[in-house]
């Protein structure tokens, strides 16, 4: 780690949070100043209010503040991915920009990492959110994600998490997959822990999430489960379906022949014969899809990845020259 690299990078994705930015900056600074060297990486995810002006002012006043501004809104996953890519600390902490996460929990999470864990996930045990649009869908989603991924956490949706940098370096984020980082990291051998964190009611701004994101979580969960189980062997999925289809075709073909031999049933008008042909075609399609998926997987793993965001500008203090204080 370079001499001027901070111990902790706090990554803050935000969208239209102009009234929350300064208080959040003050709380993070007061919390970390006495214990760790740090930087705060704000990602302006296409805000249309005065958020960027506030961020620019903070960056001018404090060299520990860095600002990444997107050209348009790309979503929280892309914002976090950009923050992780630009963070310089060996420990990276993600926190929401709406002041509902408490910065006072950050040193506790860092201390937990130093016990030997690679990821520490926050658990908003007592949440201050709408019961119908936020709490109930969250409980169902957390139960489902834990069951499918095998990584049991109470609160996958909590942005407040602490990571070792090397864990994030191996994790590529797409869609809405930021909430699945603990599961993705665990599959790579990372040690995961969870701790209760403070959750505060929103006092300014408007919540950006509701029931509309539930279907996105379910679709991303299917993707994550596929990547975790079959990302390097998709032929097992499509080939398995192809073999199942082939078995059905054989059974139906034998049934058609049996009916013809024993009952002189007209084969040309037998619907089972048509179904046999359909299953045979499906068998060929499944096998070919599996082979194509194998080619795509090899291309994916061997090619250079491209980011899911476009950065408009980055505000940060100029790098110090050698020997300069």
Indicate how many domains the architecture comprises: 2
Number of helices: 10
CATH class of the largest domain: Alpha Beta
| Overall pLDDT metric | 86
Q: Low-confidence runs (pLDDT<50, min 5 residues)?
A: none
What's the order of the H and E elements?
EHEHEHEHEHEHHEHHHE
- Based on the structure given, which CATH architecture of the largest domain is correct? Alpha-Beta Complex
Order of strands in the sheet with most strands: 7-5-6-4-1-2-3-8
Structural class: alpha/beta
Query: What shape does the CA trace take?
Result: elongated
Cα radius of gyration in angstroms: 26 Å
Oligomer: single chain
Helicity, as a percent range: 40-55%
Q: What is the total tally of β strands? A: 8
Tell me the major beta sheet.
Answer: 8 strands, mixed
| CATH level 4 superfamily of the largest domain | Spore Coat Polysaccharide Biosynthesis Protein SpsA, Chain A
Descriptive report:
This protein is α/β, with parallel strands linked by helices. It has 2 domains: 221 residues, Spore Coat Polysaccharide Biosynthesis Protein SpsA, Chain A (Alpha-Beta Complex), CATH 3.90.550.10; 68 residues. It has 10 helices and 8 strands. Helix 5 packs parallel to helix 8 and helix 9 packs antiparallel against helix 10. The chain is elongated.
In short:
By secondary structure, this protein is an alpha/beta fold. It folds into two domains: 221 residues, Alpha-Beta Complex (Spore Coat Polysaccharide Biosynthesis Protein SpsA, Chain A), CATH 3.90.550.10; 68 residues.
């Amino acid at each position: 780690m370079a001499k001027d690299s901070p111990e902790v990078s706090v990554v803050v994705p935000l969208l239209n949070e102009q009234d929350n930015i300064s208080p959040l900056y003050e709380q993070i600074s007061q919390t970390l100043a006495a214990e760790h060297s740090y930087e705060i990486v704000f990602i302006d995810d296409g805000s249309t209010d005065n958020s960027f002006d506030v961020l620019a002012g903070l960056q001018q006043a404090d060299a520990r503040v860095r600002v990444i501004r997107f050209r348009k809104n790309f979503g929280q996953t892309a914002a976090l991915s950009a923050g992780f890519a630009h963070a310089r600390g060996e420990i990276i902490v993600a926190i929401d920009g709406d002041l509902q996460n408490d910065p006072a929990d950050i040193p506790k999470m860092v201390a937990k990492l130093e016990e030997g864990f690679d990821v520490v996930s926050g658990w908003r045990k007592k949440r201050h959110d709408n019961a119908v649009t936020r709490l109930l869908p969250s409980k169902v989603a957390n139960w489902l994600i834990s069951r499918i991924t095998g990584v049991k956490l109470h609160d996958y949706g909590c942005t407040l998490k602490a990571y070792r940098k090397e864990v994030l370096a191996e994790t590529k984020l797409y869609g809405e997959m930021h909430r699945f980082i603990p599961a993705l990291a665990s599959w790579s051998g990372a040690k995961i822990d969870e701790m209760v964190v403070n959750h505060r009611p929103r006092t300014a701004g408007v919540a950006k999430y509701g029931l509309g994101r539930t279907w996105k979580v379910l679709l991303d969960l299917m993707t994550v489960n596929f990547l975790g189980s079959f990302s390097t062997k998709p032929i097992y999925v499509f080939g398995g379906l192809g073999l199942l289809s082939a078995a059905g075709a054989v059974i139906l073909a034998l049934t058609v022949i049996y009916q013809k031999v024993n009952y002189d049933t007209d084969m040309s008008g037998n619907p089972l014969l048509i179904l046999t042909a359909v299953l045979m075609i499906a068998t060929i399609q499944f096998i070919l899809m599996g082979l194509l998926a194998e080619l795509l997987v090899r291309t994916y793993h061997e090619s250079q990845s491209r980011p899911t965001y476009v950065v408009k500008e980055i505000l940060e203090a100029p790098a110090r020259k050698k020997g300069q204080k």
